[in-house]
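Summary for the funding panel

The consortium committed to producing paired sequence-structure records for every protein in the target list. Below we show the first two records in order, beginning with the earlier of the two.
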Amino acid sequence: MDVLLSADQREELRQLAESANEKLVKAGASSAEQAFGLGCSLGILPLLVVVIVLFILGIFNLIMALIAITFGGLALAGISALLSFRARSRAIGSLYQKEVGPEIDAYLSVRGLPRPQFDSLAGETISAEAPLRSFLSLPSVDSSE
């Protein structure tokens, strides 16, 4: 059931979609940055301690110690990146469930607009990589046609 929207209503829905998406982007970015920074900060100290102890004990020479720090740092960065991706996803999902989703539903309810129409308009408005897109009910595009 599509409701015929005026130009003003369409613009309000576009602004609502962009605003909701921006909230999700900010929450995801903030959470990802914190997780990456924390992962690197907490992981580098044990790595350095182990390498320095092995160097002092004579198990590692200088070149082996530098190689261990380099590969350990790369592994640490990879693990931190994975953790930051997961933190971003969780933060976006949590914010949508607690704040953004209810705001959208309340806005549509007050104005008597159906959710599928908002989803369709938001799908046209926001980019394909937008976090809000994962919460929209959009028709799937079949690439075999």
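The next record, for a separate protein in the list, is shown here:
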Amino acid sequence: MAQTTPQVPASIRLGNVKWEMGATVGTLVDVGALKSAKWEYRSTPVKVKSANAGVLYSGVKDEECGVSGDLYEVNLERLGSFYSGVLTHATVAAAPVPITDEVQVLTGTTENVLTYRNGAGTEVASIAVTNGAGTTTWRRDCDYVINVNANGYTTIARAYPKAICTTLADITVATPALTYTTAAGTFVSGLAVGDHIIVSGAHFAGNNGVKTVTAVTGSVITVAEACTAEIPADGGSFTITRGGIASGTSTLVDYTYTPLASRTLKGGGLTTFTASVCRFTNTNSAGKIFRITVFSATPDTGIVLDFPEDDSEDPLVCPISMTGVPDTTLTAGEQLFEIYDEQA
């Protein structure tokens, strides 16, 4: 018969982990497919006994963590990162490859990852972004922003829209001057020639939508697109935001990426490791995470590549074992590891 029941069922963990490592917590990179992931906390007990008053002190010394796993992906760049300071990773670039009309749907301000990356992990070149019809060229840092993530992929996101005015009822639209003029005050600063704006709330539909700024002052915005004469008495209540890409818009991205022709990993003669942060993350079916972070880890073994037989169904694996020690730049009591739990 059962002697008890689970006390906190959510603390029963299922599944494996994602292993990330990097120079800092903010630059962690996924090392890929693995098996046999293991973390452990180790220390040496210390007790000071008196001759006549029992134990005077009980504690620990030599605190450390073990982090290990068998990597299926024998990636020289990742191996070089594990053995940073001792092994040297280098690359040889291949010929640049142009990409045309890669579809990216930009929603909110969430980053989208471009399909192809530079072998060197740098930003891809010659980025040009248009609307889905290819008729409007979007402007970087006005309509969209570009970044490079920790895995070396270039990302694109819709720029955060900046409010130039909100429900402003005193705007006059003049044509053929193509101007939007506010009578009572000034527009919020931050617009420049070439920027795109989204106009909404105008009485006449032709005055709404995406417009391209050709001139701007504190109270007048001149645009390139056709508009209809409108005065405040028509009843418009204008909202204007900087950035022409509405959330959920499909864009076409052109760019050029440079893949690698080869990689090399070299060793011999360098003897001091550069410590890395290692992190294990388990995510359950509800999207909740159980995460272990070790703040200063270095390898405690070399590299072993035990090649399988040609007819073996098992691929080559590369065992990696790291030892973490306290990072004395952190607060005492928090120097070695952190376990973070959303699951239980």
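Regarding this second record: Residues 95-160+249-258 form one domain. Helices lie at 76-82.
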